[in-house]
Design a protein that fits this description.
The protein is α+β, with helices and mostly antiparallel strands and about 150 residues long. It has one domain. It is built from four helices and six strands. The chain has helices at about 1-15, 20-35, 85-95, 120-130; strands spanning about 40-45, 55-60, 70-75, 110-115, 130-135, 140-145. The radius of gyration is 15 Å and the shape is globular. The protein starts with a helix and ends with a strand. About 25% of the residues are buried.
Length: about 150
């Protein structure tokens, strides 16, 4: 993933932050994608779930009236604060984005998970669970999975 390659020198400054760095990643990746193609639409924190208090981290193509072109993505970023619970948090996002949890009006959207990690045990679990690594360096990696 190009964004990871460009920003990888900054990651070490963000993942130690108390409170995490997911919101920064949400905004940064969205801006990066739009910078590559201004016709692309990516929205943050969108209501697609049956439970109104739950939101998808990103919805791509969300302005298109054809929901089947939408891509809803949950993001999980490992940090010092969630390192011990990171895998469980990824599992929660996988459960969250299952079709039965999505509002019926949005169930034809494509769904996936993006996980950014820095521990080897997280990398191993993600690989075992079918995630595909799209970026790896000596400090961290990024993996994705279509749900």
């Amino acid at each position: 993933m190009g964004w990871c390659s460009i920003k990888n020198n900054q990651f070490k400054q963000y993942w130690p932050l108390k409170g995490g760095w997911e919101q920064w990643v949400q905004a940064e990746v969205a801006a990066y994608i739009i910078s590559l193609d201004t016709r692309f639409d990516i929205q943050r924190e969108q209501h697609i779930y049956r439970q109104y208090n739950k939101k998808a981290d990103w919805v791509c193509n969300g302005l298109n009236p054809d929901v089947s072109t939408w891509i809803a993505i949950e993001l999980k970023c490992q940090s010092h604060g969630n390192a011990d619970n990171f895998i469980n948090e990824v599992k929660k996002d996988i459960a969250k984005i299952q079709p039965l949890n999505i509002d019926p009006a949005f169930r034809t959207a494509q769904t996936g998970i993006m996980a950014i990690y820095f521990e080897e045990k997280s990398q191993a679990w993600l690989k075992d669970d079918g995630f595909i690594e799209v970026f790896v360096n000596k400090e961290l990696g990024c993996a994705i999975k279509k749900i």
